[in-house]
Amino acid sequence: MFDTRQLAALILAISFLAVMAIQPGVRESYWQILRQVVQPAIWLPFVLYGSWLAGLHWLALKVGLWNPHLLGESIFWGIASGAALLVLSATQAKEGQLLSRSLVGYR
């Protein structure tokens, strides 16, 4: 399902979060972040993105363009690249320059 490189990245990320949680100030920040994440304005785009990815993979499976054995890679790359792009596009949209900076490359 996952290859060794993806498992290593996951283990390093979890280890980093665990080590950071030892520090009291950081631990308090985790609770503040968690309070922000439970708001619909934050989690709804991620749920919609995940639903879109699931629908896209289901359609590709029905057409014969996707293999279920690629599920681990699809989850890893969907989270790693797609979530980062989702957050960046939300930041660009808040600044009012989503099209000019993201699509055209104007700075």
Describe the structure.
The chain is mostly helical and 107 residues long. Helix content is 81%, strand content 0%. It is built from five helices and no strands. It has helices at residues 4-21, 24-37, 40-63, 71-95, 98-103. Helix 3 packs across helix 4 (71-95). The termini are far apart.
Compose a concise summary of this entry:
This protein is mainly alpha-helical. The chain has helices spanning 4-21, 24-37, 40-63, 71-95, 98-103. Helix 3 crosses helix 4 (71-95).
List keywords for this structure.
mainly alpha; 81% helix; 0% strand; 107 residues
Total number of helices: 5
Structural class: mainly alpha
Quaternary state of the chains: single chain
Shape: flat
Helical residues, percent:
over 70%
> What pattern of helices and strands is seen along the backbone?
HHHHH
Radius of gyration based on Cα positions: 17 Å
How much beta, percentage-wise? under 5%
Number of strands: 0
Stretches where pLDDT is under 50 for at least 5 consecutive residues are none
- Largest pleated sheet: none
